[in-house]
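Need the bound structure for coenzyme A, inputs here:
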Amino acid sequence: MKTEVVSSLDEPPSSARVAPAAHTPATCRVATPDDLDELVRLERVAFAKEDWFPRHRFKELIETPDQHAVLVHPAGASRLAGDAILFWRKGSATARLYNIVVDPEFQKGGFGSRLLEYAEDTARRRGCRRLVLEVRANNAQAIAFYQRKGFRHFGTLAAYYPDGTAALRYEKFLNGILAAQLELVLV
Ligand SMILES: CC(C)(COP(=O)(O)OP(=O)(O)OC[C@H]1O[C@@H](n2cnc3c(N)ncnc32)[C@H](O)[C@@H]1OP(=O)(O)O)[C@@H](O)C(=O)NCCC(=O)NCCS
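Answer from helper R.:
Posting the output first, comments after.
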């Protein structure tokens, strides 16, 4: 998980308005400053300390949404079920999913799937046709999730994380477009 990727994200993609989970009426949306406490909480319940995304970085991303988005899935009026961080870059066909996380209490309830779909829709709306990500080589749960969602392993970065763990690089071509049909620009 966790480089950086344009225009305002005032309108949510259409997929954000479909099929809410059985136990929440909320749909995915772009984060606001009011979400900061919950975004920080999610980092703490789901990741080891060395992987926590800092509050000031969340704040920066929310306040300058030109080449990135923090996407959230509410689980009620004041609680988030999960979030995702997406980067893109003008002129690049590749967006990067920097992170996706669902509160362990809400996992296996479809929140991660809807957040990923929202991230993919957001990337498409920014003109991207390919989504890439890095995941810890020992994160079996996330790897299985990405593979089920159509991501393909295309590279490994040795000792990528501070504790020496390698990162596996995964990619997904949005709208089923093949690599050979694209001029790819890696993020
Ligand atoms: C990876 C992650 C985001 C997936 O989120 P999630 O909300 O659990 O994902 P989903 O619920 O959409 O899908 C997971 C499973 O739940 C199942 N599921 C989906 N909706 C369901 C429902 N309504 N009822 C029961 N099961 C359901 C899915 O079919 C899938 O099942 P499977 O594992 O047997 O195939 C989550 O595991 C997570 O936050 N992990 C820790 C953080 C992390 O490592 N992030 C990745 C960093 S690179």
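Comments: The helical segments are 36-46, 55-63, 111-125, 140-148. The chain is about 25% helix and 25% strand.
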